[in-house]
């Protein structure tokens, strides 16, 4: 399963459409016109299948700090996949794990802040 995201045209950040689908099914979906409220800029964005991207739900968060870490983790995983030397591949895989751990830490801090009513309000964790 993958989560369907669209990009906020004002902040450049991604937001979830709330659609979870496998890539084969997504390819078969018709173009539909729906508008999605944006947690980043507070406006609504039109969903367009052509501009949507599919992501692994465990590699995506609406919390910008968490999302940045998860993007880095994904980059490192891609670099590891391309690395020819074994030591280089292992280095990128270690970096990937560290970014994922950092993302978890940021998420925990955000969750705790939300419980205590401090800091910005974050999207609920999926
Ligand atoms: Zn927006």
Short description:
The chain has helices at 23-28, 64-82, 86-116, and strands spanning 2-7, 14-21, 35-37, 44-46, 53-55. With 126 residues, it is α+β, with helices and mostly antiparallel strands.
How would you sum up this structure, described in words?
The two termini are 13 Å apart. By secondary structure, the chain is an alpha+beta fold. It contains three helices and five strands, in the order ββαβββαα. The protein folds into two domains: 2-55, no CATH class; 61-115. The longest helix is centred in the last third of the chain and has 31 residues, at 86-116. Strand 3 (35-37) and strand 4 form a beta hairpin.
Distance between the termini: 13 Å
Number of helices: 3
Biggest β-sheet: strands ordered side by side in the sheet: 2-1-5
Overall radius of gyration? 16 Å
Bound molecules: zinc ion
Query: Could you estimate the helical fraction of the residues in percent?
Result: 40-55%
Counting helices, strands and paired strands, the structural category is: alpha+beta
Give me the count of strands. Answer: 5
Low-confidence stretches: none
Number of separate structural domains:
2
Summarize the helix and strand pattern as letters: EEHEEEHH
Q: Would you tell me the overall average pLDDT?
A: 88
- Tell me the major beta sheet: 3 strands, antiparallel
**Coarse shape:** flat
Relative strand content:
15-25%
